[in-house]
Amino acid sequence: MKFTDGYWMTRDGLDVQYAAEAYDLSVETGPDGDRLIVHAPTKVITTRGDTLNRTLLTVVYDSPAEGVIRTRISHHDGGRPAQPTFALTPGGESSGAGVGGGGGTGGVTGGAARVSLDEEGAVLRTGDLQVRVTRGAPWSVQFNDARGVLTRSLPKSVGLVRDAQGRHFVHEQLSLSVGETVHGLGERFGPVVKNGQAVDIWNADGGTSSEQAYKNVPFYLSSRGYGVFVDEPGPVSFEVASEVVSRTQFSVEGQSLTYHVVSGPTPLEVLRRYTGLTGRPPLIPDWSFGLWLSTSFTTDYDEATVMSFIDGMAQRDLPLSVFHFDCFWMREFNWTDFEWDPRTFPDPEGMLTRLHERGLKVCVWINPYIAQRSPLFTEGAEQGFLLKRTDGSVWQWDLWQAGMGIVDFTNPAAREWFATHLRRLQEMGVDAFKTDFGERIPVDDVAWFDGSDPKRMHNHYAQQYNACVFEALREHRGAGEAVVFARSATAGGQQFPVHWGGDCYSTFEAMAETLRGGLSLAASGFAFWSHDIGGFEGNPDPAVFKRWLAFGLLSSHSRLHGSSSYRVPWAFDEEAVDVARRFTKLKMQLMPYLAQLARQAHETGAPLLRPMFLEFPEDRAVAHLDAQYMLGPSLLVAPVFSADGEVEYYLPEGTWHRLLTGEPVEGGGWRSEQHGFDSLPLLVRPGTVLPIGSRADRPDYDYGDGVTLRCYGLLDGASVRVSIPSTPGEATTVLVSRQGDVIRAAVEGHSLRRWSLEVVGVPGAVVEVTDGADAAQVHLERG
């Protein structure tokens, strides 16, 4: 929220006091590093009398992980600790899903920070990152790394605000340099550069055409190679170059504010450190990367309809991996009761068996609400499993489901109750759950089981809901085999993949806003993301559907899903079938590459779909690009947002090659092209060794059997290491290098079989293979 009226004045009804000076500085030393403690009065102290009737802010700097500096600004510290809190990882190296519940962050340590004091002030150092606090007035703090100053906290940056209702707010403002751009803050559908925007971190079911967001994350990523994470599960207001145009302001209601500055120097390194602190995605099953087909939402369907869709896909040679049953697999007015509607699905166990015999996985829709008509409502109410009002009654309303209550996941018994029903469905044959909703969580007149603050629980509810479901799947299926399809999230939600972009219209404009949401979410630390191919609301024009097919099948996860109409390709035209086949099979062949990226995401937090600036941070032309992306480090994708195929995109410097044709394309500027429905700008980065799989019919296969390593424009003296996933947790590494006209491939291990090496963009190259006697040595000059 904004507190000032222009730069000089305060808004009516507000009393704002700023940290005026670093009055004194002290150091506390513990086993995990030093803490720098700064007392900052809101007036420069010149006489003893100035210390009376005076507000004193305490600012503490320490490090929870190397390369991360935590700042806590507090006014009155006598309040009770608030719940819930983000569950952060000591030392900052998290991998795999963790519990998304409570657990304070105050004890998270591990950065081994050291403080030095001198007459000018103090410096706290952790790794390459440091914060320097200048003694006295004016208030002056700067965060540095080896490159110099990253950002500063300047006069009027640290503020304590009191409004006419007696509420307190704490804010910080960090400076922005000339040309610096800010990204992230969750899945936001407006411009990917947040400069000039006011962003409220508050989950809402607002669709993709508004400033609201399903996934709000109080973390932003700067183009200067640092990040800022505000450690507050409740509402956070960001004014990005909007209240003060040379600063980013963030504020929370209450008596304290905690934030972390995360160093780089590259954006991907920032995300590595940030996800190390808040949680990295686990390994997910390879089958989840295949094509998902849904019943859609309010369409009429039964088992015969489902089987006709599956038969239709097979007859048209359209590889299908997952079938999803949306809401009406349960009876109307009963959501959620976890029971198949016997009128449309009289033999669910037999149907699931038949689907599995077709080689398919099965996903079903759920939400965390219990309708009053559901047989589970009375049970949940009597046992205290539903959210209550402050008078002890069950909180209810009629929006979405008549008389619905909300499962209280802060109650361990309620979590177990909910998970028990998920286990029953899994034993029946369900493989995954679409965890819809989780945003419409009330804050007035409610009492959570564990006493959580209602405002802090509003966003954090999604974390607890998705954690419950994901952990139930992992418990039943085992590590690496659990996957959800979630809509809502907050910081740390990347531990419970996959997420999809929510409800969008079936237009080119909605397709573009959907991509913007994915780019912002990727800059917020989420590795896996999907969206409804063709759009959700409305019946897409065939041109929209066909263009969206290419985009959707070049995302990490791909789902055909709509609202009131089916999304089987032949419902549009025969060309749509051809386009779906082309790009589905292409994705299957890209699985060695995608599976490698998924393992890297698990290890480093790097997203699969990447804004251009993540891969080209030195190119200032890419910061604002919101109609193209990198799929991993090697593939540039520019979806076509027009029926006639006209597309304009920016290509960084170098000789790129079209993946679909092998044609070389010179980068270094903007390009305008026209593409048919079976094509789009899909270019391979210079110096890439891209593994192409041998199968195009399914996503889960032995990637090392028959793999082709395609080398694109390898420069003289270059060396590229490519990892080919094989059995779970294992991979074969191939080192490809070039010396003069000789391309050498050295295999570490011998799990590749019948593999080949192709060379693109190096005329006259000679191929040599070592440690791989069963390799088929192939030299192709494509383009």
UniProtKB/TrEMBL annotation:
UniProt domain Glycoside hydrolase family 31 TIM barrel: residue ranges: 281-596
The Glycoside hydrolase family 31 N-terminal domain, residue ranges: 63-239
Catalytic activity: Hydrolysis of terminal, non-reducing alpha-D-xylose residues with release of alpha-D-xylose
Record-linked InterPro entries: Alpha-glycosidase_related, Gal_mutarotase_sf_dom, GH, Glyco_hydro_31_C, Glyco_hydro_31_N_dom, Glyco_hydro_31_TIM, Glyco_hydro_b
Enzyme category, top tier: hydrolase
Alphabetical UniProt keywords: Glycosidase, Hydrolase
SUPFAM superfamilies recorded: (Trans)glycosidases, Galactose mutarotase-like, Glycosyl hydrolase domain, Putative glucosidase YicI, C-terminal domain
EC number, as in UniProt: 3.2.1.177
Top-level division of the source organism's lineage: Bacteria
GO MF, any single term: carbohydrate binding
PANTHER family assigned: GLYCOSIDASE FAMILY 31, MYOGENESIS-REGULATING GLYCOSIDASE
Record-given protein name: alpha-D-xyloside xylohydrolase
